[in-house]
Amino acid sequence: MHRLFISDLHLSEATPEIEAALNNLLERETDLDGLVILGDFFEAWVGDDDDSSLAQRVRGLLSKCSSGGCELMITRGNRDFMLGEQFARDTGATLLGDETVIDVAGTPTLLLHGDTLCTDDIDYQQFRSLVHDVAWRAEMMAKPLDERRELARQLRAMSVDAASNKPEDIMDVNSDTVRERLSAAGVERMIHGHTHRPNRHPIGRGERIVLGDWTASRGWYLRERDHDLALESFDIG
């Protein structure tokens, strides 16, 4: 098994270097069995009917990857929480739930974006409950695309402003919540993104692996090759 885990690319028209880096990565890694995307793949996603040039290019890239025999799995993040089953069908991917356990390098492992672990950030958790509500999502999808795009822009601006006024530790994971989720899942390892703090943290006999975010200068992935795992970064640009 040869698989890569990535998250937090925050793809947008304003980050062509990151989109190019993703293209280059998938062209180099010709023997991948799987690609797992753990949220915030897009900076914003306004619905699976998005007809923007970026959306079309990324659909094409992922479809090419899956049609070549690479198994795609993707979970929603806090930026692209509107991703749905249509996007999964369009790209040949499997849309994962908020928490999914799969075998990684021979060990049952909990996969998630990571925002649900930041339980000290009470305001964010309340916002998350709202935007993941089925009725709220249906109301949003009934709006025209342009209106949804403007709403996404406003929500992003509000998020940046709110984050600038919060202590760093509030926006990181809560250790008790991490242990609770591992225990509830019956596993000893988890992989997540969201916090932009790439590292491997020992937890008892297991560990918490945090994926890195992609910037104009650096990208990150976790490489699984048979029973080995390596958290790696690479230059962009």
Question: Mean of residue pLDDT?
Answer: 94
Uncertain regions spanning at least 5 consecutive residues = none
CATH topology: Purple Acid Phosphatase, chain A, domain 2
The arrangement of helices and strands along the chain is EHEHEHEEEHHHHEEEEE
Indicate the multimeric state.
single chain
SSE class: alpha/beta
The CATH superfamily bears the name Metallo-dependent phosphatases
Rg for CA atoms: 17 Å
The shape, in one word, is globular
Continuous helix count: 7
Helix content: 25-40%
Supply the CATH architecture: 4-Layer Sandwich
Number of strands: 11
CATH top level class name: Alpha Beta
Query: Per DSSP, what share of the residues sits in E-state strands of 2 or more residues?
Result: 15-25%
User: What strand order characterises the main sheet?
Assistant: 4-3-2-1-10-11
- How far the N terminus sits from the C terminus, by CA atoms, comes to 29 Å
The biggest beta sheet is recorded as: 6 strands, mixed
Q: How many discrete domains?
A: 1
Write structural notes for this entry.
With about 240 residues, this protein is an alpha/beta fold. It has one domain (about 1-235): 4-Layer Sandwich (Purple Acid Phosphatase, chain A, domain 2), CATH 3.60.21.10. The protein contains 7 helices and 11 strands. It has helices spanning about 15-30, 55-65, 85-90, 120-130, 135-140, 145-165, 175-185; strands at about 1-5, 35-40, 70-75, 95, 100-105, 105-110, 190, 200-205, 205-210, 220-225, 230-235. The strands form 2 sheets. Strands 4-3-2-1-10-11 form a 6-stranded mixed beta sheet. It has a 5-stranded mixed beta sheet with strand order 5-6-7-9-8, with helices on one face. The chain starts with a strand and ends with a strand. The mean pLDDT is about 95.
